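Recap for those who missed Tuesday's class. We walked through two folding examples back to back. For each one, the amino acid string is listed first and its predicted structure tokens come directly after. Nothing is annotated here on purpose, so try labeling regions yourself before you check the end of the notes.
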Amino acid sequence: MSIPPVAVPGYERVEFIKALGITIIRKFSISAHVTELLTNCARILFALRTLKQHGLPPEAVHTVFQAIMMAKINYASPAWWGFSSADDRGRLEAFYRRCARFGYCNNNTTIASMCDEADKRLFSKIINNPSHLLFPLLPPMKSH
């Protein structure tokens, strides 16, 4: 597959872009983002394991996990979750199940449900706030 020449002189074509912490490759895949995310989460998991071994109570481990790990995973998920492949989602879910097995989080939820909930919250904020930046992009409201 050949890449067409750059349309704008002075700019170069790149394979990926990292915007606001989300890595997107030129095929609109976020596999690189998921890989980087899981690498960072593995480092955090090591730190949590160390804290747990040094006597941090289980409730505190859950709190730290939620505050750090889930915040990192859920960051801007409405922007990238839709571009994720089934393989990417499977890798994220497997990581979350492993964390649940080790006792860092509860096992009665999934990454997919958390990301879907974040999508719903964002959409709700958009449709309920006419001054929201994305509100003008919505189709006109229908009255019944």
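Example two. Treat it independently of the first, because the proteins are unrelated.
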Amino acid sequence: MKNELLMIFVKNPIIGNVKTRLAAKIGDKLALKVYNELTKHTALISEKIKVSKIVYYSKEILKNDIWDEAYYQKRMQSSGDLGERMKTAFKDAFNDGYNKVIIIGSDMYSLEKSDIEKAFNRLNYHDVVIGPASDGGYYLLGLRSNIPSIFDGKEWSSKNVLNDTLNDLKSKSFYLLDYKNDIDDYDDLLKEKKLLRKVKINAKNY
């Protein structure tokens, strides 16, 4: 749909640059392997969703990677902290004429195509859709109009992000999706048995 946009924030897959909290436990090489599996999963579930899609890179735009340019536009994230970067991306999206915009990252192995499609559908009836993460943050944010204030004054990567955001939305109609596991550290990874098998990590070694 021309008026619907899915934005995906990714980090460039550089060893030592991704999943640093996880790497502290399993090492940079395995952390990169986990991150690559997470981005593959995100590409797999999002590729065929019938909306416009933009991948936002952290360091440089890559060609001929897993993000097929037949399905994804490619842009750079702006400068600033996560809130400032998301604020800019949403501002640009609404300035470009989209009226339902969703952002996700690439840390969710339990996120499915149906979750994203449900979020777009819920935006027909609510101002905001949020996918709450079990660590106190969120894995998905959908807006029907720009609300730049929700990106201000947040302690990103803290357990307070979701509650602080919901406090900013008291005058808005919002819908919460199911809670999901955001993979940031080793304890998060242990909850994803299928992913552990895929990257051939034996939890007994750690």
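Answers for example two:
Residues 90 and 188 are 28 Å apart (CA to CA).
Strands lie at 4-9, 52-57, 73-76, 100-104, 128-132, 138-143, 174-176.
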